[in-house]
Amino acid sequence: MLVGVPKEIKVREYRVGLTPSSVREMIAHGHKVIVQKNAGYEIGFVDEMYVAAGAEIVETAKEVFDRADMIVKVKEPQAVECEMLREGQILYTYLHLAPDPEQTQGLIKSGCVAVAYETVTDKFGGLPLLAPMSEVAGRMSIQAGAHALEMKNGGRGLLLGGVPGVAPAKVTIIGGGVVGTNAARMAVGMGADVVILDRSIRRLQQLDDIFKGAAKTIVSNTGTLEEHVLGADLVIGGVLIPGAAAPKLVTREMVSAMPRGSVLVDVAIDQGGCFATSKATTHENPTYIVDEVVHYCVANMPGGVARTSTLALNNATLPFALALADKGWKKALADDEHLLNGLNIANGKVTYEAVARDQNLAYTPAREAIGA
Ligand SMILES: NC(=O)C1=CN([C@@H]2O[C@H](COP(=O)(O)OP(=O)(O)OC[C@H]3O[C@@H](n4cnc5c(N)ncnc54)[C@H](O)[C@@H]3O)[C@@H](O)[C@H]2O)C=CC1
Ligand SMILES: CC(=O)C(=O)O
Ligand SMILES: [Mg+2]
């Protein structure tokens, strides 16, 4: 199969779909790889490394899209990329379709076979291709929040860990999954006063075991959310209902009632965000202020530490990329229920139920759509 890797085009997104080492593995499996010029340049994966791994370097994204049987990317395709996709071509990348009708229509129109990293599952009930980036974003969320709490950034002027004789900052983490756990590890490590809310008691039991009291666990409901959001200096939003638009758990009224200079970091913004006042931002302009509360809503946080993120992402995505290339999409999807769960759009049909439901579109079960 001919596998194509275009350069990412979102603002300050420097991750790349395949590392030189992943390219080498593809070639060892008998495939050909074309990589757009300078696709990995900013993170030290220069073209010479891709050539040494066996890839061909091509000048433009158009050439990658025109020639490749499978496109391996990182972020969801932008409008110009959707236009270059074609019928039967595999697109393997993050999609986050539920809150994005424009991209959904673009992919439907293209006729491509779109496998979303974020909905591929594993036998442990997890999301193995989302997890590495959630680890990164969860850890970064505390760095971003600590920075936003500084005076010059509109924050309350608080140091997360406090100092002897002065109380630490209060950090509330909504959602105790991969993002929440990694955020809590960083916040606890910095000495903050940490509370994690989740609606799953089982998850809270696991977190209690992990943190042994260093982070408190609270069941999430309207009352506890209000209490712990209003009492926090920094709130991290890390909830997920797989494939669906994020629930708006923090209302506009709650945001208005927070003290001046409080900080909200909405990691769930890629699924539309869990604060009523969230709107996606970029690494170029990561924060904005509503009712004197600082909001950080970067939808591609791991792009800020693109080298670590690319390596972590490839560790998880490569085995499935190889399966798609080795077997072709029909057999690879038919053989593996977990990869099949990643299929969101196929040949003009929406094959992921939560996306269809959130956008009032017809739903075709994935197995039916691939004719397996
Ligand atoms: N902005 C960015 O750059 C990035 C964003 N993300 C996003 O972060 C979000 C979280 O991802 P993960 O931690 O991997 O998901 P996860 O599935 O590991 O954890 C989500 C948690 O939210 C909990 N939850 C769901 N509804 C809830 C509610 N109403 N109240 C309280 N808790 C609730 C679940 O029980 C679960 O424990 C996703 O939207 C993901 O796409 C992930 C990586 C990067
Ligand atoms: C998961 C995601 O949105 C990202 O890594 O950018
Ligand atoms: Mg206020």
Automatic annotation (TrEMBL):
Keywords: NAD, Nucleotide-binding, Oxidoreductase. CDD domains: L-AlaDH. The active site is at residues 96, 270. NAD(+) binds at residues 134, 198, 203, 220, 239-240, 267-270, 298-301. The keyword Disulfide bond does not apply. InterPro entries: Ala_DH, Ala_DH/PNT_CS2, AlaDH/PNT_N, AlaDH/PNT_NAD(H)-bd, NAD(P)-bd_dom_sf. Transmembrane segments: none annotated. Its EC number is 1.4.1.1. One of its GO terms (biological process) is L-alanine catabolic process. One of its GO terms (cellular component) is plasma membrane. Pfam families: AlaDh_PNT_C, AlaDh_PNT_N. It catalyses: L-alanine + NAD(+) + H2O = pyruvate + NH4(+) + NADH + H(+). Substrate binds at residues 15, 75. Residues 149-297 form the Alanine dehydrogenase/pyridine nucleotide transhydrogenase NAD(H)-binding domain. One of its GO terms (molecular function) is nucleotide binding. Belongs to the AlaDH/PNT family. This is Alanine dehydrogenase. It comes from Gimibacter soli.
